[in-house]
Specification:
Length: 105
């Protein structure tokens, strides 16, 4: 099955990006999670738990309907294609708990 396209991006508070998908799915991606999952060679080579300016987004841009660009306040830049972004969604449905969105665990 093909990965859905991205219909819209939106700011969710000060700490997350919302993604509206063409198949009706809705993802809320915390900035910290997006930075930890950055697919660039530098981040893959030295994975860290970022903080401070590293998890503050200066700019978010949808490129076409399949790519998201994030400019971080520390100068780093991240590109996610739709497939990568959908794979890291941690909503209840995507992690296998569609009936229990808040588990308390």
């Amino acid at each position: 099955m093909a990965t859905p396209t991205i219909k819209n991006l939106r700011t969710v508070g000060r700490y997350a990006v919302g993604v509206d998908w063409s198949d009706g799915h809705d993802s809320i991606m915390p900035h910290r999670h997006l930075r930890q999952c950055c697919p660039c060679d530098a981040c893959l080579a030295t994975p860290t738990d970022p903080g401070g300016d590293a998890i503050e987004v200066a700019r978010v841009q949808l490129i076409g309907d399949t790519t998201v660009f994030l400019a971080w306040r520390d100068g780093h830049e991240t590109f996610f294609v739709a497939e990568e972004l959908r794979t890291i969604c941690r909503c209840a449905h995507c992690i296998g708990e569609p009936n229990y969105p808040i588990t308390g665990r």
